[in-house]
Design brief:
Strand order of the largest sheet: 10-4-6-7-11
CATH topology of the largest domain: Quinone Oxidoreductase, Chain A, domain 1
Number of domains: 2
Radius of gyration: 19 Å
Order of helices and strands: EEEEHHEEEEEEEHHEHE
Shape: globular
CATH architecture of the largest domain: Alpha-Beta Complex
Strand content: 25-35%
Helix content: 10-25%
Length: about 240
Amino acid sequence: MTGTEHAPNGRPTMKAVVTTGNGGYERLDYRDVPVPVPLLGEVLLQVLAAGVNNTEINTRLGWYSASVSTATAAVAEAAAAQNVVAQDDGGWNATTPFPFIQGTDCCGRVVTVGPGGDESAIGSRVLVRPCIRPAGFGSMDNVWMGSECNGAFAQFVTVPSSDIFSVSCDWTDVELGSIPCAYGTAENMVHRAGVAEGEHVLVAGVRWGRLGSGATGQAAWRDGHRDRREGEDGPGAGDRGGPGH
């Protein structure tokens, strides 16, 4: 395993950005942590690229809390003044497990697999589906990578083997690392809306980021007609449409 060192107990360590609590940038701690070990049904990935979403900022700020009624920018200003209140419900679905490693978007390479795993996956370049479904797609229960479990702001990360997808294309690691959260959210919306050939699709606020452009692209892939409409408000202005924001 390349890029690792060893702790005094002999266990390999890695570099990671650990988020220690709700607040500003002072809550980000670059440190050595143990390399995770894949459990049954998991794989260990070497992180090749990790994207940064608004959800990383929102989770750190506790913006998803029901008690927060202002835009992300207002909460960020409070954080800069070190005036952020810790939020028990500040995560996407549940209490944020501080200290932990954020990073919702991940392009990685399979290093090893958990007990009984498919070793043929080792060496594959993959994308990770960040909306992890521990009970399968027959249930709406989900766990968001980088919000409720450790994410990709580290050299290595463990994820369920059912949530990785092998990628073979000429896109760079960095380009692929921008895809999973925003474009996956867009795909879910377009799919659930049942967009079909010839239909008109209104994408509001498309200029504000990857979710809008992703929804436009997904609609185009289905050969629908697109109406691109740019919103008047800036990003984070009370829009809680999904972690891709």
